[in-house]
Task: inverse folding
């Protein structure tokens, strides 16, 4: 049939993508599961060890430290980013003098190269760097930005928030512009003030944008790597050793390719679980 | 909010957001001992460009070559991404072939595979294929973006079916319709994809670190992390190369500022 023949053309359009994604994404994901059952340093023969890599992982303090560090980094980053970028979007949604300049200034960190950013922040965080000096002058306290196990994780969060806020601000502005103006006019006629309009109209209308920002922010922060690699190498005392860094170290510094794959599987499973929960919540809400 | 409060709030925040780049820039023109000197001076006593010219004197580092590598890999990976995303997006949006929904879900579900989780097996695969230390080995994995496929599919959905049908009646084949009608109509979306993806590829550090061991094949971020990790590298040099690494995307941003934000809006909303 003529029509059927046309539909088959669609298959040829998607075929290159299917092949390349199959080889370079799906196959490696499957082999990650496979390798996680082996002890392997890449040079000698693979040795099947069953579930012992996972057993080791569950008892490995370094893994749990890394997991909690990543979780902490992601959660606090995302909360701060959402609050800050939403407030900025509310202000910058309207047009006024110099608005574009302010918007560009806040957006600039998004387009700076991550490694360059890590280098300059590292200088600012040094004990004789400008940030440390500023804190001594202003508050009289010496902050050990990168050398205290208590503070270093927050220094990482600070850099992440600074880098990503501009990006989500733009997404929030777009979301705000999509809320129909008639809603606000009706509310104004009813005598609702700014905060009432914000709570009863803006926030519910922006639900999808919030979900989008939340999900993409979590996935992005959960996979953080360059910043920690350049600025702290996971230190001090492994307080900033995020999962991506641990996977890298286990494989390419300690040549434990099997164990590294087990951590990769745990990493993937965590994000998958998060996506499923998030999807469930989203679905049950939209059914109401 | 009062206009002046808003203005001051934004002024303070903009200053804070711009400061690290400003600091990177001015410090790169200082002599070594001034970079971390106390008391802090914002501007250098004497502006000097030695840090930039000195970059050429490190025999172990071939920075022009790294810039070539990074630019070449970024352009090639983005080009490949555009080809794959537009063809697949068009295929999924306009045709209804056997298992098309199943294939689409498979491709879309790869969004959930974080790159960090597959680097080890991907490295082993590339090594087996003999693609470590090659441009191909850098480019192909960096060209994959399920999100891009999704974006293009959403866009091609809005293409009127009658336009495609009338082209068919005029005797155009399926590929001609794609090239002459679908692609030109998708300019905005393709532009968004280019901006979004080039930013991502340019910034990548983990994959080059793993796949490249030959010094000649290093990318810019990889070279900087190595260069600044050596403790006797002078500070202004570290900052100078960091400034240079930011320039390509900054230039892109200055020229395409409007499309830049529109691109992000598009990638964010759909």
Result:
């Amino acid at each position: 049939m003529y029509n059927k023949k046309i539909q088959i053309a669609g298959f040829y359009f998607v075929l290159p993508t299917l092949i390349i994604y199959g080889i370079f994404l799906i196959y490696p994901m499957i082999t990650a599961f496979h390798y996680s059952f082996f002890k392997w340093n890449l040079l000698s023969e693979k040795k099947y060890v069953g579930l012992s890599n996972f057993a080791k992982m569950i008892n490995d303090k370094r893994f749990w430290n890394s997991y909690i560090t990543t979780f902490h980094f992601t959660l606090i980053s995302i909360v701060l980013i959402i609050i800050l970028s939403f407030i900025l979007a509310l202000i910058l949604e309207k047009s006024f003098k110099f608005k574009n300049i302010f918007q560009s200034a806040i957006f600039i960190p998004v387009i700076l190269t991550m490694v360059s950013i890590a280098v300059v922040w590292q200088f600012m965080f040094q004990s004789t760097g400008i940030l440390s000096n500023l804190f001594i002058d202003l508050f009289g306290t010496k902050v050990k930005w990168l050398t205290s196990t208590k503070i270093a994780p927050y220094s990482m969060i600070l850099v992440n928030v600074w880098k990503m806020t501009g990006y989500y601000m733009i997404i929030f502005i777009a979301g705000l512009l999509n809320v129909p103006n008639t809603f606000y006019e009706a509310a104004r006629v009813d005598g609702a003030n700014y905060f009432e309009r914000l709570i009863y109209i803006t926030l519910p209308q922006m639900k999808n944008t919030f979900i989008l920002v939340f999900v993409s922010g979590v996935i992005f922060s959960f996979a953080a790597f360059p910043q920690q690699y350049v600025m702290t190498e996971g230190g001090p005392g492994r307080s900033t050793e995020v999962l991506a860094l641990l996977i890298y170290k286990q494989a390419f510094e300690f040549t434990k390719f099997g164990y590294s794959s087990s951590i990769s599987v745990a990493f993937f499973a965590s994000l998958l679980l998060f996506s499923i929960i998030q999807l469930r919540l989203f679905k049950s809400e939209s059914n109401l | 909010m009062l206009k002046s409060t808003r203005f001051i709030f934004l002024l303070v925040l903009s200053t804070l957001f711009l400061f690290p780049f400003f600091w990177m820039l001015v410090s790169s023109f200082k002599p070594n001992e001034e970079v971390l000197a106390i008391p802090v001076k914002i501007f250098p006593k004497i502006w000097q460009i030695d840090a930039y010219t000195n970059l050429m004197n490190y025999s172990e580092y071939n920075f022009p070559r790294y810039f070539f590598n990074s630019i070449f890999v970024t352009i090639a990976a983005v080009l490949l991404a555009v080809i794959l995303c537009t063809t697949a997006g068009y295929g999924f949006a306009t045709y209804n072939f056997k298992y098309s929904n199943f294939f689409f879900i498979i491709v879309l579900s790869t969004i959930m595979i974080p790159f960090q989780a597959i680097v080890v097996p991907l490295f082993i695969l590339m090594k087996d294929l003999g693609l470590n230390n090659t441009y191909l080995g850098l480019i192909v994995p960096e060209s994959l973006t399920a999100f891009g496929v999704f974006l293009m599919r959403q866009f091609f959905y809005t293409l009127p079916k009658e336009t495609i049908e009338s082209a068919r009646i005029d005797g155009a084949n399926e590929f001609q319709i794609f090239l002459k009608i679908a692609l030109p109509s998708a300019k905005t979306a393709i532009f968004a994809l280019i901006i979004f993806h080039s930013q991502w590829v340019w910034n990548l550090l983990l994959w080059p670190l793993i796949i490249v061991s030959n010094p000649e094949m290093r990318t810019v971020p990889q070279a900087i992390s190595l260069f600044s990790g050596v403790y006797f590298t002078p500070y202004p040099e570290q900052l100078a190369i960091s400034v240079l690494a930011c320039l390509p995307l900054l230039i892109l941003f200055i020229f395409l500022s409007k499309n830049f934000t529109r691109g992000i809006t598009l990638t964010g909303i759909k």
Observations:
- Chain A touches chain B through 94 residues (CB under 8 Å).
- Residues 2-35 of chain A form the longest helix (34 residues).
